[in-house]
Structure formats: C-alpha cells, structure tokens
Amino acid sequence: MSSEIAKQAEARRTFAIISHPDAGKTTLTEKLLLLGGAIRMAGQVKAKGENRRAHSDWMKIEQARGISVTTSVMTFEYEGATFNLLDTPGHEDFSEDTYRTLTAVDSAIMVIDAAKGIEAQTRKLFEVCRLRDIPIITFVNKMDREGREVFEILDEVAEALALDTVPMVWPVGGGGTFKGCYDLVREEMIPFTGEDSYGTPVKAELLGDELPNLIPGDLYDTLLEEADLAMDAYPDFDLESYREGHLTPVYFGSALKSFGVKQLLDAVLQFAPAPKAQPAEPREVEPSDSKVSGFVFKVQANMDPKHRDRIAFMRICSGKFKRGMKLHQIGTGKSMSIHNPIMFFAQNRELAEEAWPGDIIGIPNHGTLRVGDSMTEGENIRFSGIPSFAPEILQRVRLDDPLKAKHLSKALESLAEEGVTQVFRPVIGASYIVGVVGQLQLEVLLSRIEQEYGINVGFESAPFVTARWVTSDDAAAMKHFLDRNKGSLADDRDGCPVYMARNHWDMGRIQEDNPKLNFTATRER
Ligand code: G4P
C-alpha cells in the first residue's frame, strides 16, 4: 500500500501563484486550468455579471469590491499528474490568509508584470516562501506589451529577492515587436503569432528557411548576442538549488495570449517538488506513511449564509484518505467521521471518495475544526509552522446593544477561527480588541458581524499600534513582566500573552528593558 501512496504522492504538484494585484494571476490561472482541461472556456475563473455572482460572490463585500476574498483550491490533471492549485487572494489586505495558504503548498509560481518588475506584494509573499523554503518558478508576464529590458528584470529579481535567476527561455523582442521565446535548454524557438495560442515550438536546426518569417534579421542578431551574454551572466539551472529555494528558473510569456503557459506548466511538472516530508512534532511525516494525517490551513464559515456550517480546508500530508474515514483532532482528542469531504474542480465541488498526499479536501463541520489543527488516524502528531501574524491595526470593538455581548463573543471567536481577525482580550477592561493585518480586513469583519450574526458593532481606535507575542524560558522574568504591564497586556484566543505597544518607540524600549523575554511578530499555532 505504501508504495501506491508514494506513487500517488509523486504524481502530485500542490502549488500557489504569488503576485502583486494586476500582474495577471487570474488570467494565468485560467489558462493553466484550460490546459489541464478543467474548464472548457476561458473567462470562467473571473467570470463577470450573473455567472460570477452565482459562483463566488457569496459575500456582499465581495460584490461591492469586485475582488475575490475566498481562497479556493482548484484541481486539474495534466500529462498524467494531478495539480492542486491553491488560489491566494491577491489583495494586499488579505495577506494573513494568503500567508497561511502558502503553508499548504510545495512550490509557487511568481508572476511578475514585465513592465513593473518586483512589486510590494510580491516581495512580502516571497518572504514567506523563503521562510518555508518554498521553491519558486518565475513567470514574467505581459511580454506582448512594452516592458522593461530583460536583463534589468532578471537582475531585479536576483537583487530584490537574493536569488539566483536562470532564464530558461529568452524573449525575442517585446511589446509590439514580441516574436516569441527561444528555449535555451531545448534549443527551440516558440514563435508568438499574436493569436491566442500556447505556441508550437520549432527545433532550432529545423528553422532554416522559416527563420526570416519568425524572427526579423535585426532581432535575430540581438537574440544571438543576448543569449550569449545570458549564458555567461547567469548560472546553469540546478534542480537541487531550485528545490532548496536558492534559485529560480525564469520563463517569459503572455498569459492573456496563453503564450509561454505550457512551458511554465511543463516546468512545474518536471521540476517542482512532489509532496515532501512535513515538519511536525514529535517527528516529520513522510507522505508515504500508511496512516492518514493532515492539517487545516483555512476555515471558511457561512459559505451558505442560511447554514452555519463551515468548510475546513485540510491538506493531506500522508496516507490514503477514504471517504467515511474517522480522523482524530489532535489537541481536543475529538474524533470525527468524514462523510462528506469535498474536492474542488475549478468551479465545481465534488464528493471526494479518496485523496492522497498533497491533495486538499474540504471538511464541512460546525465549528469544531480550527486553522492549524492536525488530524490523524490516531497517532499524536502535531504539524508545525502555521503562523499567526502580528496585527498592524488594533481596534476596540464597540457594541451597540450590551445584551448581545455573548453573541458578539461567539461571532468574534468564530471569525478568529477562520483567521478573518485576531481577537485579544485585554487583561484590564471588558471590551475586545481586534487585530487585523490590513484596513480592508476590518471592513470585511464589520460586514460579516452585521450580515451573518446580526450584531451592530463599531470599531474605535485602541491606543495601541502593534502587538507582539511574549514568551520566555525564564518563568520568573515572565511573571515579573506580566505583573508590571497589565495595562498593555492581553490574551490571544488561545490564552497566550500579547504585549500591545502604544507606539513603536515603546515597543523598542520594552524589548531593551526585558532582554530575557522574546517579543515575536508571528506565533506558530
Ligand atoms: P491579477 O489576478 O493578478 O490581479 O490580474 P488579472 O489576471 O486580473 O490581470 C490584470 C489585467 O492584466 C487584466 O486586464 C488582464 O486582462 C491583463 N493581463 C493579464 N495578462 C496579460 C498579458 O499577458 N498581456 C496583457 N497585455 N495583459 C494581460 P484588465 O483590463 O484590468 O481586466 P479585464 O477587464 O481584461 O479582465
């Protein structure tokens, strides 16, 4: 059995696309799904009008903003392998959710706009990939538009992210003169015709008479010159180094025109790692382990506003999962039979009869499962590394109707379980403080408390600008600190102490004054 599990795991690629908004992630996703036959017609991922509302606009705010706030999973097949693409919300305010999604992938594609290079959000997401040694394949998009110099883009990636860059193809022209890409490894030309097409490569030695049609003379000379320079300037592709996260192979194309997308997916198939051993306590978990294990990286509540059910997204880390199986929730000791696990195929959901390491299943539940939970067939294994991030905005929750205090506490707790917000209970004082990573997250929170729980609340500024989790090996120093700083302390929802600073200077001072304490911006669950 375990060889079958290993074989199935080996045939899986679980990945995400990271990018700055507008770089072309949605367009690329669409084209990848088309290539995998998961959708028949382009335009469905970001369908507009009625279609779009029917599928994903289950939240008012989503309609108003026209953005996707849900992290979905899309599964498709290509060349005998199963690809699980975890869609990460592109809006910068949803970073916490996005970061957590990255804990469930084995690799990532980084999409860059050829005209803009590395942008703020790309850099942030990249940092998380680096923390987790997630290997990255780079796709420079929008080559059909005027962009920056190719060397400039490659050097920017190398410098900004401290990564070796290895161009795998070399673009010929750009913008109006974009003629395609020369594959430096396979030594073939993939002509760009301007049509929407994945492109048909032509072997270099066969180019002969066709050449002038494909590449006008001056561009051909430039290509020879640049390709030569590139060979000297950049290292050779090294699979180990890519998988360790030190090097990124770079592809160029136009997602809008499907161009270069096949080369990119082929690269994911060929180079990107299959599910590997996952960090856990007390031992790492190998995908080929015969027993099923996994962790919840996202919980989505109220997908159907009429029902208070939630979907917990679980990544399978080992074993062969079968529908109906009983799994134990580590920590609470509860067990649950998973009768209706869901798999996500583009816009469709289907019951998952079985799932393998690397797959993501959705588990409907009534609030039992939380982000960060480990599930196993019985062994006491806890997956590590799913972070909470220090909030950048802290607000006090003002309740209009004091009789609803209990309701509010429930609502906040379940929204915190989903990772929509962080909830802090100040050591002194009665009202909750919510922490979010961005302003939009606050609006989502407000709208959901009103819509889904029927409670009218407002937010008031709290006198704090940032928060840090406090830990220490020195119990006496910890106690001393907790006793002396009650006015600035709160408990997070797991009861862990958090120091809330009134300004950045205060944060610095408190750290200096308490060398035996650790103040961290993330906390692993
Ligand atoms: P995102 O998910 O990363 O935010 O980006 P998205 O795919 O929505 O693309 C952002 C805009 O860039 C879209 O145009 C899209 O059509 C365009 N785009 C994506 N890839 C390419 C490409 O390879 N070449 C060119 N020229 N454009 C590209 P829009 O006008 O903002 O949206 P829409 O009305 O076309 O949907």
Task: Explain the overall architecture.
- This protein is an alpha+beta fold and 525 residues long.
- It folds into 3 domains: 17-68 and 109-271, Rossmann fold; 280-383, Rossmann fold; 387-524, Peptide chain release factor 3, domain III (Alpha-Beta Plaits).
- Helix content is 29%, strand content 29%.
- The protein contains 15 helices and 33 strands.
- A hairpin with a 4-residue loop joins strand 8 and strand 9.
- It starts with a helix and ends with a strand.
- It binds guanosine-5',3'-tetraphosphate.
- The site of guanosine-5',3'-tetraphosphate has 16 residues, from helix 2.
List keywords for this structure.
binds guanosine-5',3'-tetraphosphate, globular, seven-stranded mixed sheet, Rossmann fold, 15 helices, 29% strand, single chain, alpha+beta, 525 residues, eight-stranded antiparallel sheet, 3 domains, Alpha-Beta Plaits
